[in-house]
Amino acid sequence: MTTSRLEAFSDGVLAIVITIMVLELKLPHGDSLKDLQPLIPTIISYLLSFIFVGVYWNNHHHLWQAAEHVNGRILWANLHLLFWISLFPFTTGWLGENFNSTIPVALYGLVLFMASLAWYILTKLVIKHEGIDSPVGIAFKNDYKTVATMVIYALAIAAAFYEPWISMAIYALVAALWVVPDKRIEKMI
Amino acid sequence: MTTSRLEAFSDGVLAIVITIMVLELKLPHGDSLKDLQPLIPTIISYLLSFIFVGVYWNNHHHLWQAAEHVNGRILWANLHLLFWISLFPFTTGWLGENFNSTIPVALYGLVLFMASLAWYILTKLVIKHEGIDSPVGIAFKNDYKTVATMVIYALAIAAAFYEPWISMAIYALVAALWVVPDKRIEKMI
Amino acid sequence: MTTSRLEAFSDGVLAIVITIMVLELKLPHGDSLKDLQPLIPTIISYLLSFIFVGVYWNNHHHLWQAAEHVNGRILWANLHLLFWISLFPFTTGWLGENFNSTIPVALYGLVLFMASLAWYILTKLVIKHEGIDSPVGIAFKNDYKTVATMVIYALAIAAAFYEPWISMAIYALVAALWVVPDKRIEKMI
Amino acid sequence: MTTSRLEAFSDGVLAIVITIMVLELKLPHGDSLKDLQPLIPTIISYLLSFIFVGVYWNNHHHLWQAAEHVNGRILWANLHLLFWISLFPFTTGWLGENFNSTIPVALYGLVLFMASLAWYILTKLVIKHEGIDSPVGIAFKNDYKTVATMVIYALAIAAAFYEPWISMAIYALVAALWVVPDKRIEKMI
After folding, report:
1. pLDDT digits (tens, 9 = 90+) for C112-122
2. With b meaning 16 or more CB within 10 Å and e meaning fewer, what string describes D113-131?
3. Which of B107, B151, B167, C111 could, after both became Cys, cross-link B156 (CB 3.0–4.6 A)?
4. Quick check: A57 and D124 in contact, CB under 8 A?
5. Is C13 in contact with C86 (CB distance < 8 Å)?
């Protein structure tokens, strides 16, 4: 089985997720600048999630450049990843309306954490299928970056119960770190 | 006629269905954990339907790996399948709001049943077009699994008039059975 | 310029239109069979429009199987077609809520008429680009079916001012006529 | 890295943006012609934005016909462009409800301006990657049209604070100018 349809389907889901998040930006009732003001947290949440989906799309792109085949388990591991990403519009919208509340901030981080975990499982299954000496095997063998990201998300979730703004700063930092494209794989190809 | 555009269009519809179902997850008004609680049935319905769409995408993927050509009737049989799947967001949303009510639970099963029937018709038309000795003909000749699934859905619909929770358990069981990828076809390819 | 990206983009738009129309099926407030009853006109409208979008997708598929190149004018003629089709969710939703009212029924027909006209212009531009003796030129030279459809739509729009149900019957008839795939082109390929 | 998946993903986002903008066309409560009247500004805004998205899709199509490779920075420059385009449904909807108000008209222009700027950055990065003597380098070397468009948008934004209708006329003019396909690139290919 080749990867092309898996890529097309994932592209579709990621493109829809990244776009329907904007539907949470409800039109303001007035027409002045101050009517836009309450939307600022929603816009920031949207931007943050847009970057995270962009990161997943980029990494996904890199992974399937390196990998060449899929099996049934990989298809489901990929759907598992898409499931968590499909919850982004919900957690992003709720975060936008409750920017400084513990539970929305923590839930946002939890879904990020689960997506990272799903990504980690997906890469492990792909390595197992392609072989440890394949390009993807070498590139993702020691995926410290994903593991570190999961640890940081766990800390951010915990921090939300103490001070939600700390969690928000951590999310922004993680987003910034991942925008840098994955040099390891680019070097391989 | 080749299958590539049919696959691309179906991927598009399935990707959109799987993603817009999440729009039924309305943002809670408060920001606490107990505000999320009423959403639990909707989340479970969403997860269930996500798996069903994933199963259809997987099976669709397998079918068009094995088959190579389409004709006008196959294009419409495929649209017929997509029609029933396109109703998933509606039945899933209604189920999520009425988790223990006969009609929403039965309607959810009815749409699943109709999608199964549409899938069954589609595979029969593809076999007829490709030939009984083609890879797809051999793989789908005795599609007991789809027939059994339809019988089980019929039982689940009936059960909803007696005790909706039994139907829900049956749906979950069917989803679990189908997550296992179709060995028959994988063996063929 | 090849047709592949034009096909991919059009598939995307058609897949989204066919799927978001279902968002007009608002969840009923109750959980009984009679709560579903007011949705019947909306479901019928949805089914009708689903078939029309399916017809356009099928015809589009056939056209680009026969044609091989595009130019700037063809790209815009295609976008012009997609514009009218993108209005289907609006006219379908309004029709569903006002099944027996002159203006919604007439507007539904007007948008169908405009989409037919856009389709007609698109095929003419493609013929001009490919040549009158090309496969697409021969297949679409005397497109009586599209012209007849436009005349019928015009009659249906007029009929809506007399008796909307007549228009609805005409729309259903046209949909049925077009579900039959285009033999002319299939023969060519 | 080849451009195919970048094109597929961008096609997806553009197709979704162009289609979900129609969701801002809320169904009128009545069923008469005068119930449609308040929707006229929204329909005009929709048409305008539909054309702008169509222009971006066309230009995007041309750019990747000429260019052949991407790197990480180009992927992000492309996502940056898609981010601003993804805000079109919001600014279009707000404009439709406040056709003659300074802030909505100016914001609409600001997002157009930012999308133009993102497009400009994207082409510069592609030229840098492909080389100044590559087809894309020659075609986009002196992209006066994009620069002029940005200047015009800036003027339109300023005009909104004086008389919003002037800005609207300018937006319509720019849309009309861009509908003409990019001859420079077509000549190259």
Report:
1. 999 999 999 99
2. bbbbbbbbbbbebbbebbe
3. B167
4. no
5. yes
CB contact under 8 A, A16 and B16: yes
Asked whether the beta carbons of D86 and D18 are under 8 A apart, the reply is no
Nearest to B32 by CA among A85, A106, A169, A159: A106
DSSP state of D26: P
Structure tokens that stand for D96 in this block? 């439709």
Which one of A9, A19, A73, A85 makes the best mutation probe of the B interface by having the most chain B beta carbons within 10 Å?
Answer: A9
* CB-CB under 8 Å, D16 with C12: yes
- Mean pLDDT value of segment C96-109: 94
Find the helix or strand (DSSP H, E) in which B22 lies.
Answer: none
Q: CB of D22 within 8 Å of any CB in chain A?
A: no
DSSP label of B133: T
Phi, psi angles (nearest 5°) of residue C120 = -60, -45
Q: Which two tokens stand for residue A146?
A: 């994903």
Higher pLDDT, B43 or A145: B43
Could you say which of D22, D32, D57 has the minimum Cβ distance to residue C9?
D57
Inform me whether the C-beta atom of residue C184 falls under 8 Å from chain B C-beta atoms.
no
Complex-level ipTM: 0.90
Please give the distance of CA B2 from its chain centroid, rounded to a whole number. Answer: 24
Give the C-alpha separation, B4 to B26, whole Å. 36
Give the C-alpha separation, B132 to D1, whole Å: 41
CB-count exposure of residue B39 (10 Å: 0-12, 13-18, 19+): middle
Residue B14, pLDDT score: 95
Distance CA A81, CA A96 (A): 23
**Each residue's pLDDT tens digit, A16-52:** 999 999 988 999 989 999 999 999 999 999 999 999 9
pLDDT for res C167: 97
Question: Chain A contacts of D12, Cβ < 8 Å?
Answer: 11-12, 14-16
- The residue whose two tokens read 């989409």 is C115
Find the residue in D nearest to C7 (Cα).
D11
pLDDT at D57: 92
Phi, psi (5° rounding) for residue A141?
A: -55, -55
Question: Domain coordinates of chain D in residue numbers?
Answer: 4-188
Q: What is the 3-state secondary structure (H, E, C) of chain C?
A: CECHHHHHHHHHHHHHHHHHHHHHCCCCCCCCHHHHHHHHHHHHHHHHHHHHHHHHHHHHHHHHHHCCECCHHHHHHHHHHHHHHHCHHHHHHHHHHCCCCHHHHHHHHHHHHHHHHHHHHHHHHHHHHHCCCCHHHHHHCCCHHHHHHHHHHHHHHHHHCCCHHHHHHHHHHHHHHHHCCCHHHHHHC
pLDDT-derived band at C144 (thresholds 50, 70, 90) equals confident
**Residue A12, C-beta contacts closer than 8 angstroms, at least 6 positions apart:** B11, B12, B14, B15, B16, D12
> Is residue C22 within 8 Å of B21, Cβ to Cβ?
no
CB contact under 8 A, A65 and D20: no
Closest chain B residue to A101, measured at CA: B31
Residue D142, CA distances (Å) to B95, C164, D7, D145, D152 in order: 58, 57, 24, 8, 17
Alpha-carbon gap: D11 to the closest alpha carbon of chain C (Å): 5
